[in-house]
Design a protein that fits this description.
Blueprint: E1 4-16, E2 19-30, E3 34-38, H1 45-52, E4 60-65, E5 68-69, H2 77-83, E6 84-87, H3 99-109, H4 115-128, H5 144-156, E7 162-166, H6 174-189, E8 194-197, H7 201-207, E9 210-215, E10 218-223, H8 225-230, H9 235-242
Parallel strand pairs: 3-8, 3-9, 6-7, 7-8
Antiparallel strand pairs: 1-2, 1-4, 4-5, 9-10
């Protein structure tokens, strides 16, 4: 069994008094594993990812990165975020910077890495996702799918130990979804450790080593994808999956 990279114990988060968005979540992901989290809107999926990345502060519970408790140590938050990369639904690219500057900014500014080495790596990654010719373009000149691929490259440039992907195709036109998901599938094949929140069920089935079904802030099921999608154990999961089938 490979090393556990990221885990939580009893993770709880509430936004309104008495309304737990996350309720005592126990979770772990091993090196090279892909875990997909599915569930209805508002069930706590995105909040969970934001807690893992320390963008949200949990009310209680523990988050451990390679066995080290990280959510109760305030001074090293930025260091831990470097190791837990996150790609958002809304790209979050700087509009006044071109593609190459967007993806090189954090390694240069935060990690103080060599400029020539960073640029060389950035160009290799842009080529890998089919965007080398867009290196000098600005976000306004890109399609939604291209922007999201740039956002993935930007996250990879920090050499994260685990990558969190939060509904990265939700804002895309259907034709652009496949080009983004193909990049993620390739990352999975190469052994990237990822936690993915998605509503793309066929993609989830193809990419996941394990599927977690979250509802009302609790893990109701945790199965291999074939088991979850063909024979869910709970009535709630069956009802959720039935919403993706049409007569």
């Amino acid at each position: 069994m490979k090393q556990v990279i990221l885990e939580t114990a009893g993770l709880t988060k509430s936004f309104d008094k008495g309304n737990a968005v996350l309720n005592k979540i126990d979770f772990s992901i091993h090196q090279g594993e892909v875990v997909v989290i599915v569930g209805p809107s508002g069930c706590g999926k995105s909040t969970f990812l934001r807690c893992l990345n320390l963008l949200e502060e949990a009310d209680s519970g523990e988050i451990l990165l390679e066995g080290k408790l990280i959510n109760q140590e305030k001074k090293n938050v930025h260091k831990y975020r470097e190791q837990i990369g996150m790609v958002f639904q809304s790209y979050e690219l700087f509009p006044h910077k071109n593609v190459i500057d967007n993806v090189c900014l954090a390694p240069l500014l935060v990690q103080k890495r060599n400029k020539d080495e960073v640029k060389e790596e950035a160009l290799k990654l842009l080529k890998r996702v089919g965007l080398l010719e867009k290196a000098e373009s600005y976000p306004r000149q890109l399609s939604g799918g291209q922007k999201q691929r740039v956002a993935i490259v930007r996250a990879l440039m920090m050499h994260p130990k685990v990558l969190l992907l939060d509904e990265i195709t939700a804002a895309l036109d259907p034709e652009m979804v496949r080009e983004v998901l193909q990049v993620v599938l390739e990352l999975a094949k190469e052994g990237m450790t990822m936690v993915i929140v998605t509503h793309e069920m066929e993609f989830a089935r193809a990419v996941a080593d394990r599927v977690i079904f979250l509802d009302r802030g609790e893990i109701l099921e945790e199965e291999k994808p074939e088991e979850f999608f063909t024979c869910p154990r709970t009535e709630r999961a069956k009802k959720f999956l039935n919403t993706f089938h049409y007569e």
